[in-house]
Amino acid sequence: MNAALSNPEWSKVESMAYDGFDERPFLVFWEITRACALACKHCRAEAQSHRHPDELTREESSRLIRQLAELKPPMLILTGGDPLMRTDALDLVREATAAGLHVGLSPSATARLMHADFAEIKAAGVERISLSLDGATRQTHDAFRGVSGTFDRTIAAVHRAHAADLSVQINTTLTRSNLREYEAFKNLMFELKPAMWSVFLLVPTGRAGIADLPDPQDIEHVFQDMASLVGRAPFAIKTTEGHHFRRVLIQRHGAGGRQRPGMRSPLGIRDGRGVMFISHTGVVSPSGFLPFDCGNVREEHPADIYRHHPLFISLRDNDALGGKCGRCEFRTVCGGSRARAYGVTGDPFAEDPACIYQPKLSGAVQV
User: Fold this and answer.
1) Which of 119, 190, 218, 309 is most buried, by the most CB atoms less than 10 A from its CB?
2) In total, how many domains does the chain have?
3) Is position 351 within any domain?
């Protein structure tokens, strides 16, 4: 059995039917704090060592949870910074779970995590924990994270999560400097057997710059190899901000590629289109990598922002895409990274510079 099926509830959520991008996001990322003990080279949040004085209070956080329960996104991910830097993090998980939300947690591999009780994390309602491995060796990962010992703590955390029967997702950020480690990353995944390997294609925001982007041709080679693993590896595979992996899957596997474990449901999800990000101070953006201020949950209901803000509405429109993304027959299932387009060109509707594919001008692939 595929390891991704080891947690029936989370797998059920990931593959569930979806009733449309216009009404609600599929994924809500809530940055409950920006505080973190690490100093990662490409941190989106440019995390700091101390909590921000204007973070959402506990009362405001509880109200937000009630509002999100009304919105009913299939997945809520508590992230940061390091969410465990908030002492009430698991209380927020319990509240969200009691409100009917499916909750994931994305902690940093720090001493704080090593002191945590993984059975308690699961009992609080966390359905999946995501951990980052951005170097395939102790030396390269610790250099990326800016603190020694993070590689060993991450490996230990994976094993402790497995022991607590807590579903694990491993996130790997691909950059120009670590792309040469791809084979080693792959071997490590076969060793660790997470439920999901999520490969994040770098976006130039926060501490990451355009010079850190991998070459598009190299990305294509990696995606082709990843596509060959789908359905064969003892873990599911997906990409973050690497939406053209869906195009590679369909090209490789035909129509059936849309239903394979590497193709996250629903199709066409991207920044602002099925994705909503809420910052530690309540600012709502189309994603954490597309940091536009579209409103604040202190003043507006997140559902109203997602449904009615002009930027969200435009990002959900496949026909609003520019360049070759707007002409591409895969635009309804991919649409490119709006965050990377913005980070490189300043235009969130420009073509994704990380994709080498040239459209065939033959209409759109039907979802």
Assistant:
1) 309
2) 1
3) no
What is the DSSP secondary-structure string of 169-215? Answer: EEEEEE-TTTGGGHHHHHHHHHHH--SEEEEEEP-S-TT--GGGSPP
Q: Is residue 184 packed enough to be buried (19+ CB in 10 Å), middle (13-18) or exposed (0-12)?
A: middle
**HSE-CB of 20 using CA atoms within 13 angstroms:** 5
Coil/strand/helix, residue 83: helix
pLDDT tens, 146-164?
889 999 999 999 999 999 9
What would the two tokens of residue 159 be? Answer: 């094993």
Residue 334 in domain: no
pTM, entire model? 0.91
**Cα atoms in the 13 Å half-sphere on the side-chain side of 279:** 22
Sign of CA dihedral 223, 349, 77, 40: positive
The pLDDT mean for the chain works out to 89
**Domain range holding 116?**
3-319
- Express each pLDDT in 258-279 by its tens digit: 555 544 557 889 999 999 999 9
Q: How far is CA 278 from CA 180, 229, 293, 330, 362, in A?
A: 34, 33, 10, 29, 38
* 180 in any annotated domain: yes
Residue 359 included in any domain: no
- 3-state DSSP call for residue 27? strand
